[in-house]
């Protein structure tokens, strides 16, 4: 399904409301809500609204367990550019989530330990009954998580090499492309696909060409987001600008 909103603020509030619904339903069932989270500029409005719902509307995250999509590798958690820092600053520092329930790929692993760690990440998600809801942004390469062109539809959590365009887009955060790590640990396309519900968000004209490919293009590993066309549980949430190339 594709839903287009007039602007990203309205869209972000809707996505936050959907997340809150899942959290509250699970709470009523005395179960944990297992959320897959994304970083980057796209979900910031959603996190702002979730913080507001926590502070002003009594939304509690005590029953929430989170798994982030990805982290640069190598990356120290306390570095300004780490996704740990991003999540703390934009969400976790402002809500009542138990820090033990937060999972983010570990950018400090020794090379030899990465593969086993990645399998464990998958197992942890599975042991909790899988992801109830995964939110996604989309990169201009068509990546979801850091599943760059060439990623397989059944790929799991793993170490990947970042596409040149992805590193160029991250250059500003790192004070130059040369400082952007060449690798990352990411959930796989297969990991994402197992979520019971997936919401991919995109805002602005900058995303319009890749959104057209993702939604209307041929399904291919060259644009990993096209795999989402194969799922009935995906909603593309767009602002008018990101939707402007759709036919
Ligand atoms: C982030 C992630 C990436 C971003 C994508 C878009 O955890 O997995 O796929 O969602 O690169 O980034 P922004 O939102 O900064 O345009």
TrEMBL record:
Sequence ranges assigned to domain Glucosamine/galactosamine-6-phosphate isomerase in this UniProt record: 8-229
Domain of life the protein comes from: Bacteria
Name used for this protein in its record: Glucosamine-6-phosphate deaminase
Organism: Mucilaginibacter boryungensis
Gene: nagB
Residues of the full protein shown: 16 to 262 of 639
